[in-house]
Amino acid sequence: MMNILKDFIKEEKGQTMVEWIVILALILVVIIAVVRTIGEKGKTKAKQIENELK
Question: Hey, which of 28, 39, 49, 53 has its CA 20 to 30 A from 10?
Answer without folding.
Answer: 28
